[in-house]
Amino acid sequence: MSADIMSEWADALWDPVVGCTRKSAACRHCYAEALTAASAQDQQWGLGFAESGPAGPSWTGRVALRDDRLTLPLSWDTSRRILVNALSDLFHESAQNELIDRIFAVIALAPHHIFQILTKRPKIMQAYIADAATPERIARVMDEIAPQEVAHNIVAWPLKNVWLGVTAENQKEAERRIPALLETPAALRFVAAEPLLEAVDLKAGVWLRNEGTSAASPRLDWVVSGGEIGAEAKPCHPDWARSLRDQCAKSGTAFFWRQWGEYLPNAGVTAEPGSSELAFAPQGAGPVQRTLDGILHEAFPTPFGASA
Asked: Is residue 74 within 8 Å of residue 5, measured between CB atoms?
C-alpha cells in the first residue's frame, strides 16, 4: 500500500508517531519503511528511524512522537475521517503509555472528527484501552495541550469518535488478532484484510454478525481489503476478494474494496468463482483497479456505531 492510496478510505492522514518494525507477512513490502528511509537520507523527519542499505530500507526499531504534528487535527474545522499513523503503529512495543496518551488527548479534544486506528499489535491495544487509569491520564494531558479554567474529564470511555482495527492479511493473523480486537472496548471495530494474501474466513456468527447473533455481542463493523503492492507482490485471486464481499453482504457488514495491488487479474474480474488458473498483468490504472466484478465497493460503517 501507499499513503496516498490509503486515503481512499480516509479523508485525511495524521502521522504524529515515527518509527516501527516489521511484524508479519503484511509488512514484507512496507511502504512506510521505504518512505521513512528516504526521508532519513534527506536528513529530515525519518533520520534515525529507518535506514537504506544494500538489502533495501530497514527500520532501526526506534519509535518517537513528532511534536510538530501532534495537534494538527485541532486545526481542521471540517469533520473528517482521519487515519492515525499510516506510517507507524500506535501500539508498537516501544511506544510507552505517555506517548499514546498524547495522541488520545488530541483525539478527545477533537470530537468532530472520526479517528481510525489500525494496529498489528491488538494485545497491547487491548491492555491500554482496558486500563482503568487510561482516561484519567488522557484528561491530564488534555489540560496540558488545551488549558482551561475547569479541568478536562473523559465522560465516556472508550471514546465514541475512535474506530479500532487490526490487519488480517491471512487466516493465521485473523485468528491471532480479531479475537483480541473483539475483546477490546470500542465504539466501532474494523479489519483491514490488506494486503490480502489468501482466502480469509471471517466466521459468521463469531466475528461477523448473523441472524442468530445477539445485538450485544461485539462483532466486526467494517471490512477493508485490497491486493499487495511491491516488486515481489503476490497476485490477489479474485475469489479471495469475492469471498470477503459475500461474507460481508450476508452479515450486513460494510465492505470496502480498495484496489487489486501490483497485479490486475486479466480475466479475474469477470472469471467464474472457483476458477484456479488466472492470467495476471502488471497493475492497471483508473476505475478497473478498484472494481470487483465491475462494481465499486466503498461502503462505510455507521459513524459512531455502538458495538461496545
From this structure: no
